[in-house]
Amino acid sequence: MTDPFSLDDKHVLVTGGSSGLGRYFAAFLASRGARVTVAARRAEALAKTVEEIGAAKGTAHSVVMDVTALESIESGLESAQAKFGPIEVLVNNAGVTQAKPALDQAEKDWDKVIDTNLKGVWLTAQATGRRMAAAKTGGSIVNIASILGLRVAGAVAPYAISKAGVVQMTKALALEWARHGIRVNALAPGYFETELNDEFFNSDAGKALVKRVPQRRLGELRELEGPLLLLASRAGSYMTGSVVVVDGGHLVSSL
Description:
Elements: E1 11-15, H1 20-31, E2 35-40, H2 43-55, E3 59-64, H3 70-84, E4 89-92, H4 107-135, E5 139-144, H5 157-177, E6 182-189, H6 198-201, H7 204-211, H8 225-232, E7 243-246
């Protein structure tokens, strides 16, 4: 029997693939045999992702895509499909945040976060889902949510609201698209150590936050690999509408 976790020759699209989690996800999925299209707004940063994947003997190319603009999404999907054929897995990862108290969040702050994290996830899932349904190939969509979509923190209200919307969107699309063979699930990470947050987590406030995680540590990016692979591959073939939380037990910690 073939390996149910195999992604050999699967065409995977990763949005927000120019940095952070998106770049990590793209490199990991390529290492599992996928042909990866990385999408984001910054062509130069995307080229670096593709170069790194190629250096590791993976297969990837990039498309410039603004997930807040449907025309840009459609153009990116056309380019991706022309290169690697129909998209079989979408990792809907593009996202931003704005750290300010709710009373200080300007309308433009709200629009930036909601347009990218909620509208962008919706538009990209919808456009990709339409293609999957028309091709009658089915597929897997993995929306990247957050534990802040299930529980709140201070100074990131628009972000938490957007991720709560992604969680509910995942369930709504899973219900409607199961008939097309399209699985829609969400991955909800907790706090993970990256080069972008090490300064905060070395501060007193950061150390206090880590103490509230039952495992008393931050996650390592490699610990997202198994859950992502489960949702993307045939191993998760009977999973749709699920929200997989990877947070060291943070959500079950006491208030």
